[in-house]
Amino acid sequence: TPLDIESYYKANKERYKIGAGIQVSYVELADEAKKEEMSALLKEGKGQKIEKWLEAGDPSIGELGQDKAALEALLGMEKDAVSPELKIAEKVYLFLVNDKRPEGERTFEEVKETLEAEYRLKKQEELMSLLLEQALRSEGVKILYQPSEQPPAEQ
Question: Which pLDDT does position 94 carry in this prediction?
Answer without folding.
Answer: 96
